[in-house]
Design brief:
Helix content is 51%, strand content 12%. The protein has helices at 21-43, 53-59, 64-80, 92-102, 105-118, 164-167, 171-182, 185-196; strands at residues 123-130, 133-140, 151-157. 35% of the residues are buried. The structure holds manganese (II) ion.
Length: 198
């Protein structure tokens, strides 16, 4: 079974004006779609042709297969990490876990912003569950917490293609907008609940 490009969880223009329909048309319609196409070209006719995307990401050696598989997974996770009704603050178990690991929600937001803004070159910033606590981790290029035994809760894509059409070189403005207007706390909370089995 080929790996499929999942539908976006909202309309192409739903994140406008924070992320434009034009950015989505390239980022989802071209970049994400290309990773899916490339991955299927690499696994077709091999013993990975029926493997799950997660298994490919967890087992692939560094190189083209890993890069394309991880970018397919990362981008689907990124679309779900945003919502037209996003932003605000977390609540419940997730808020408590963030306060326990970072001191406060505001401290978390500042550390997440610093990490995402400071990631040199192309990559991702993630909130993950690592053991009993939460952590912010930065990955380069296609790398992903899924390959390192961590449970991803949310992510921001800081490759330039994620923001350049809307923000040009102003990555801090893109990161601020993501945190204040787009961040899907409900998705992060659901991932935390699923990972702890509560
Ligand atoms: Mn991207």
């Amino acid at each position: 079974m080929p790996i499929e490009l999942p539908p976006l969880p909202y309309a192409d223009d739903a994140l406008d004006p924070h992320i434009s329909e034009r950015t989505i048309s390239f980022h989802y319609g071209k970049h994400h779609a290309s990773y899916v196409k490339n991955l299927n070209g690499l696994i077709e006719g091999t013993d990975l042709a029926d493997a799950s995307l997660e298994d490919i990401v967890r087992t692939a050696e560094p190189g083209g297969l890993f890069n394309n598989a991880a970018q397919v997974w990362n981008h689907t996770f990124y679309w779900n990490s945003m919502s037209p009704e996003g932003g605000g603050d977390p609540s419940g178990e997730l808020a408590a876990a963030i306060e326990a690991s970072f001191g406060s929600v505001d401290d978390f937001k500042q550390q997440f912003k610093d990490d995402a803004t400071g990631n040199f070159g192309s990559g991702w910033t993630w909130l993950v569950r690592d053991g009993d606590g939460l952590a912010i981790v930065k990955t380069d290029d296609a790398d992903t917490p899924l390959a390192h035994g961590q449970t991803a809760l949310l992510t921001i894509d800081v490759w330039e293609h994620a923001y350049y059409l809307d923000y040009q070189n102003a990555r801090p403005a893109y990161v601020d907008t993501f945190i204040e207007h787009l961040l899907n706390w409900n998705f992060a909370a659901a991932n935390l609940t699923a990972s702890t089995g509560v």
